[in-house]
Amino acid sequence: MLKAAIGGGIVTPLLASCGALVPASDGPGSISVHTQLSGAVAGAQVFADVVAAYQRRTGRTVAQLKNGSDLPIVFETSTLAGKEADVAIVNMMGRTLGWTGAGATIPVTGLLDDWGLRDKIVPEALEEWTDGEGRLRAFPFTRTNWPVSFNTGLLEEAGVEIPTTSDELIAVADALRSRGIGPVTVGGSDWSGQKLFLQILQGFVSQEEARRVFSTGRLSESAGAVAGVEHFVELRDAGVFVDDVQGYTSDSELTQFNTRKAAIVPAMSSALALVPAERAKEVAVGGWPVPSSGGVLDRPSVIKSYNGHGIWISENGAEKLDLIKPFVQDLFSDAVTDAFILGSGRDMNRVTDTVSTDFPLVAQASRLTDDDVTPVMLPDLLIPDSVFEPMIKVTAMAYGSSASAERIVDAFEKSYDAA
């Protein structure tokens, strides 16, 4: 079942090298952890420090394998060979949504109470991480808060204020351009631009309708979704996005914002932790302006989700629960939670009153309430994995060309059909 569910012919070519895919963890008292918290990712250094402290304190080895966006495919490859790491720390999206059902990872529902974690994790996170069969896929660790940041210094130079409606946004873009300042910057060529495109659509559909649209891709069957695409085109043609936005990535959008070349950026809170203190002093955090007409939102929108990194236990890990238990309990301790929030600006699914002090924009975002903004969904839990890359090509086309709403809708639907 496992090989049929996650293997197919996709990862087989990698099996020849799978012996090097996992770190050695055969020693007594040792476990292996496959993690995305590495490199330049927010929280990577904190995680490394936490693991090192745990090893010193317990005398147990935590062998690490580090990957980025390719972690799911590497993990699946090693799983097919029976050599997967005991624990995986990875986002719940695309391929990973099927891991528990396929038997690649074990449901941790029964471990919540046994390990004393149920009351330490916010209930909404547990609900979001539970599949349709009632299985908790993994322990929800980090989460996502995706606000919009406004450089108030640049807005003041242009003689405008933070926009809360689309008409105001267009006027602000005109004023900024007249001063040689870029308006909204976003990674038009990657997932960050895709997220904003889908967020704009959610200004015209209920959350129930959004679930249906993002699951099926049938934009043309939803009058609201079509209106959302038309609204996107209106904003694009009005010059709301920076020039050549289709060439930007999530990294370059942040660079442009940090260097004052653009005044507005939609970016997740973990990215806001990378905004220099000097720049953060002139930045206010809010939501994406509501449509001036025809929309369904009363307040600017912010993507919010409890889906960030989860702590998954593999088939191999199921044989080491006695060793994994204290490690996971340590990750959900007050000290580790505080270390992530204070040391990296990460939003956590652990129940806590701790607020970031060295990352003021993250703190601002965490204080936004439903009186300030309207939360909208992160579509990642609904979009089939095989659709992600084709869809990003569609949204890149939408940002960078004069394509009509009809052409965008058609290409969007075809990305689902082809996948």
Provide the fold topology.
Layout: H1 2-7, E1 31-35, H2 44-58, E2 62-66, H3 71-80, E3 87-91, H4 99-102, H5 111-114, H6 123-128, E4 139-140, E5 144-146, E6 148-151, H7 152-157, H8 166-178, E7 182-184, H9 191-201, H10 207-216, H11 223-237, H12 250-258, E8 262-266, H13 269-272, H14 277-280, E9 283-286, E10 301-305, E11 309-313, H15 321-331, H16 334-344, H17 360-367, E12 374-376, H18 388-400, H19 405-418
Parallel strand pairs: 1-2, 1-3, 7-8, 10-12
Antiparallel strand pairs: 3-11, 4-11, 5-10, 6-8, 6-9
Helix pairs in contact: 2-16, 9-18, 11-19, 18-19
Explain what the structure shows.
By secondary structure, the chain is α/β, with parallel strands linked by helices. It is 42% helix and 12% strand. The chain is built from 19 helices and 12 strands. The strands form 3 sheets. It has a 5-stranded mixed sheet, sandwiched between helices. Strand 1 (31-35), helix 2 (44-58) and strand 2 (62-66) form a beta-alpha-beta unit. Helix 9 packs across helix 18 (388-400) and helix 11 crosses helix 19 (405-418). The longest helix has 15 residues, at 44-58. The chain is globular. It starts with a helix and ends with a helix. The model is unreliable at 7-20 (pLDDT under 50).
